[in-house]
DNA sequence: GTCTATAATATGATAGAC
DNA sequence: GTCTATCATATTATAGAC
């Protein structure tokens, strides 16, 4: 048999993920991917016979699996909704490195979803996240329509805060998104309480 | 003298802008840029001696000028705040083609703002937009801190809704952002009115 | 100002030794 | 399974005619 793997597959995927998250699909060259992974180009092709496209696919799949296990699953749990949300927020913070890492769903997106090799996976991932957010909002007492609106607001705010954090070079916006996530998804106050939000 | 310009410069910039918005900086090849602009590669280099980098810079500058004139200026006007916001929203709808076009600030972003040729312009553009939004929120009666929070929420929602619209292949999220923009920036109700939002 | 033709390099990918 | 060496192509960019 050949040599033993010099690097764990999960570690290779993790290193490739950083490159794709940083510079996107087109921006990632094989030279860069080889450098980052610690493998030579030919070794990368041995592990990913489908080439760069497969690398990105496997990276995306691994990311979505992680999100499914650490964000979607907690949101669908059976504890108090706000506790589920807090756990999901904590894991999103880990996933996005506190806002330092861009979202693959944004970095791998193509102009029209249907084109591009990842359009279908990206659309399904967004829809799964929307469904999970809506589910916990529903569990917190929102109507079906309100839950959907809250879920969209959560996804939109997450993506937008990541874009702005990268744009201004500060993780502030993403941090504030995490802080606000519970109130975005679960009604802020009981039915009889007066509001204090949006008033100085 | 040489031949007259076969295509108006503004039109060339507009066509290049579409390419960069669609596929980003790295994704845009000179073959693609030449095809889209209607000029041959050598003619593009005649107009943009700095090459692809200058094309993207000029495209970004033109976009930011348009935004300054059609979004920032209206927001800083002297009419009723909600009218200023309505005009800004209308022009943002035009600029982003109803949500079909991605934001250059997102497509040209680099991992760390400081790297990349456009980081400084992008950061300044975000800050100018934040300042303009905060200004109109302030004019609508918000405190300085509340105005800043509302401005950030507006920028974050705009960027996030564009990302989600592209991701799911529907302009719905961006359309809803435009609808909500007045309430994001200006207090929704007078001080004495009870709330109806976020309750089914 | 635009074009055809071409240069110089980087890219994605493969062959074949160990 | 990893590597060095290489291939074919696409890329950015330039030269020079009109």
UniProtKB/TrEMBL annotation, chains A, B:
Keywords: DNA-binding, Transcription, Transcription regulation. It comes from the Bacteria. Residues 113-176 form the Transcriptional regulator LmrA/YxaF-like C-terminal domain. Pfam families: TetR_C_13_2, TetR_N. Residues 17-58 form the HTH tetR-type domain. GO terms for molecular function: DNA binding. PANTHER family: HTH-TYPE TRANSCRIPTIONAL REGULATOR YJDC, TRANSCRIPTIONAL REGULATORY PROTEIN. This is TetR/AcrR family transcriptional regulator.
